[in-house]
Amino acid sequence: MTDGGEQAAVTMYSNEYCSYCGAARMLLTRKGVAYEEILVSKDPALRTEMVERSGRTSVPQIFIGNTHVGGFDDLHSLDASGELDKLLAAEEA
Ligand SMILES: N[C@@H](CCC(=O)N[C@@H](CS)C(=O)NCC(=O)O)C(=O)O
After folding, report:
1. How many other β-carbons are positioned within 10 Å of the β-carbon of residue 38?
2. Strand segments (E) across 3-59
3. At what angle do helices 72-81 and 19-30 cross, to 10 degrees?
4. Looking at the whole model, is its pTM more than 0.85?
5. pLDDT tens for residues 29-80?
6. Measured from the CB, is residue 59 less than 6 Å from ligand 1?
7. Measured from the CB, is residue 58 less than 6 Å from ligand 1?
8. To 5 degrees, how large is the angle CA 75–CA 6–CA 26?
9. By the 8 A CB rule, do 24 and 36 touch?
10. 44-60 burial by CB neighbour count: b if 16+ within 10 A, else e?
11. Which helix (H) or strand (E) segment is 68 a member of?
12. What domains appear along the chain, each with residue ranges and CATH number?
């Protein structure tokens, strides 16, 4: 995590029965990153919001602040390269 200050706002658009969403949840939880989860399966308007913000239709779609990270594959790649920690620090609230 970051040194001092508030953690960046992390938002994950997801649905309940998606394995990639589960993998993203585990990665964020393992890192101790708090996130807001928006279940798009419950509300078509939220799915529309996700598609408009991300330009993608698959779940999960993850944002750090207003920066679009992408799906689980993107999150995992950023974590492996160390860029995820930098992004969390840069977007610190
Ligand atoms: N490469 C993507 C794969 C995500 C994916 O395939 N999600 C499925 C649900 S588990 C999905 O949304 N499929 C419908 C679609 O692609 O529109 C990731 O890592 O997030």
Report:
1. 20
2. 10-14, 36-39
3. 30
4. yes
5. 999 999 999 999 989 999 999 999 999 999 999 999 999 999 999 999 999 9
6. yes
7. yes
8. 30
9. no
10. eeebeebeeebeeeebb
11. strand 67-70
12. 10-90 (3.40.30.10)
